[in-house]
Amino acid sequence: MVVIANKGALERALLPYNQPMSARILDGKALAARIRSEVGAKVAARVAKGGPQPGLATIIVGDDVASQVYVRNKRKACEEAGMLSFGYELPAGTTQQDLLHLIDELNNRPDVHGILVQLPLPVQIDAAAVQQAVAVHKDVDCLHPENVGLLAQRGREPRFVPCTPAGIMRLLAEAGTQLAGANAVVLGRSNIVGRPLSLLLLNADATVTVAHSKTRDLAALCRTADVLIAAVGKAEMVGGDWIKPGAVVIDVGVNRVEDKNAKSGYRLVGDVAFEEASQVAGAITPVPGGVGPMTIAMLIENTLRAAELAD
Ligand code: NDP
Predict the structure, then answer these.
(1) N or C: which terminus of the chain carries fewer CB neighbours within 10 A?
(2) From residue 271, how far is each of 37, 104, 242, 284, 285 by CA, in Å?
(3) Catalytic one among 131, 139, 141, 271?
């Protein structure tokens, strides 16, 4: 007698035989480089016509190592695109009042077109109050409630699209993903990734399900996804058997796992178990080299947009 434990187990057992698939790798690094050089050319043309150089102010509070790396990369990309970069590194003990004072100053500076406050912020600072303090036309991360509202309401023209979700949509477009009518599952509901991304996918006519830590049977839900986006921050949580054969998988997660062979003692992995997932998916983003570089490219694009809004 043959006992089939469940359908997923059967599919898994059959995978090596009927799905010899190896996913197409969606190269975010290459696409981001192309976008950054296009933005750089637009900036050069703007400056040649006598227009002001776009300027981005980045603020980091405290000494979170990962945040410092992200911000350093953002500043570098900004300068490489011919933009001005104004960096503010504030001590961990900075008060909310001091931070709001700095934002007010930057809101009023004509050479600063975009303001980015790197998250997370120390506990004494209310992130929502800070995000609301950034002038709406300088809000390149799109976290001000007015800008989120423009993104959320049907028929509105958003002022900015938040960087990571915008980068994911560009990757999906580049991959030629058919979103209209597709089942899209977004794992994670944060303000910075999951929520705005679900709105963008909805605007693109996908049928969107947003999952989170209280969702029941995530694996079964994920297996319904034609497009699966993982943004949870849990190393390799999404296994190959969570993925519908042929699905497009976007891995947003950036997680450090111990690796004794690496010089640093760790390596970066996503929320998706890449090796097994790429045997099942039709297309997949790597970590690193997928969504991360796209986030930076979109920030540069948003900064140019902010400068154009100020013209
Ligand atoms: P948050 O911690 O703000 O949100 C995580 C989300 O995942 C929450 O909605 C949470 O649910 C959900 N979640 C956590 N654990 C589980 C679980 N076991 N099952 C189901 N859902 C779960 O993270 P972010 O959105 O800021 O970031 C997510 C990941 O993406 C991180 O690894 C981060 O480093 C990375 N990231 C990468 C970027 C890039 O450019 N590559 C940019 C931004 C983030 P609940 O709401 O119920 O708590």
Answers:
(1) N
(2) 29, 37, 12, 12, 11
(3) 141
